[in-house]
Write a structure and sequence with these properties.
Length: 347
């Protein structure tokens, strides 16, 4: 049975989170009201996973994550408020070694809690499986591969990148490794709460040579631009003409229990894009992306998957590889070069 420590300065929230986890078959072996207590509780209880609040007195969640990862490394799920400040703080915690994030309910807390019940249990189970040696390894500055002046790339190349647990830092590194010379259109589907994808897009924009933004309904992009799927919306590739992609946002049924789904974007890209198309699946739990990789391969596109050694959770890549439709399996650090090889014109 998975053993958890619950950290929150609200007695009510600790009680509710504990009840949800225990009803989902997860044993809560300790609680803490602030970061200092969290560090002690983790050392004493040796849990499999920690749920960590962000804003707390004495020592906040970011400081607690840093201390825990330095002394008693343990998979940590951040529970953060639906605010810009909450999102920024959570990404800082991910940089310090936290594995994943779930938005705390707003408005009527009792209603919101019931709505995230299944998500909370699923996220905790996913985070528990994380390989901590691969977490929190984002590059501080873009590091694009050297591209010779004479390098020729296919015209109008499109790349669809999908990731889940442990994905943000890997996605950052992938985008920072793509040079503008490749003139790609990049679509990113990262499983993430709806209040965090805008901030994630801003981080990618600051760490990449590409112009990155959160997708809006009807958005169009051309070469050198990237869209991040908006949380709670599928990103559908609805049109492709003269090297420009158009997307629409869709709140249709979840797939694999998630929205946005990697499969939706990859499948519609495979149906719509007539030029070079590359599908990439990165770290994460579940099966989302496998059908999308099959669709891209069937459409004549190239397909890549992150390897097990560098994946925080080797679920999504493994399921894609099992389809037999993945062209190459690469360590996270080699994915940018792998993408470029799929759109480089033969000499």
């Amino acid at each position: 049975m998975t053993r958890a420590v619950v950290v929150d300065d609200s007695h009510f929230m600790r009680t509710v989170i504990t009840d949800i986890l225990e009803s989902g078959g997860i044993e809560v072996v300790g609680e803490a009201t602030d970061g200092r207590e969290a560090v002690s509780a983790v050392a004493e209880c040796d849990p499999d996973v920690v749920t960590m609040d962000v804003e707390m007195p004495n020592m906040n969640g970011i400081e607690a994550v840093e201390e825990i990862m330095a002394t008693t490394p343990t998979p940590i799920l951040m529970l953060s408020a639906h605010t810009e400040n909450g999102a920024e703080a959570t990404f800082e915690a991910l940089d310090k070694g936290a594995v994943d994030v779930l938005a705390k309910p707003g408005g009527e807390v009792s209603t919101g809690i019931s709505a995230i019940k299944d998500d909370l249990v699923r996220k905790v189970e996913s985070v528990e499986r994380a390989d901590l040696s691969t977490v929190g390894e984002s590059s501080p500055e873009p590091q694009s591969p050297d591209v010779a002046d004479e390098t020729a790339f296919a015209e109008n190349g499109t790349v669809v990148v999908g990731a889940s647990t442990g994905g943000p830092s890997v996605v950052e590194n992938v985008l920072s490794g793509l040079p503008l010379a490749a003139d790609l259109r990049v679509l990113v589907v990262q499983h993430m709460p709806d209040s965090f994808t805008s901030r994630f897009a801003k981080r990618l924009d600051g760490r990449s040579d590409y112009d990155v933004r959160e997708a809006e309904d009807g958005d169009r992009i051309g070469g050198g631009e990237a869209l991040v799927a908006k949380g709670d919306y599928h990103m559908v590739v609805s049109n492709y003409s003269d090297g420009r992609l158009r997307v629409k946002l869709d709140q249709g049924p979840e797939r694999h229990g998630v929205r946005p789904a990697i499969d939706v974007t990859m499948e519609t890209a495979a149906e719509t894009v007539s030029d070079a198309l590359t599908g990439v699946v990165l770290t994460g739990m579940g099966t989302d992306g496998a059908a999308g990789i099959e669709a891209i391969k069937a459409a004549g596109g190239a397909t890549l998957a992150q390897d097990e050694e560098t994946s925080s959770v080797f679920g999504i890549p493994a399921r894609a590889i099992e389809t037999g439709c993945v062209d190459d399996v690469l360590p996270a650090g080699q994915v940018p070069r792998g993408i470029l090889s799929t759109v480089r014109e033969p000499t």
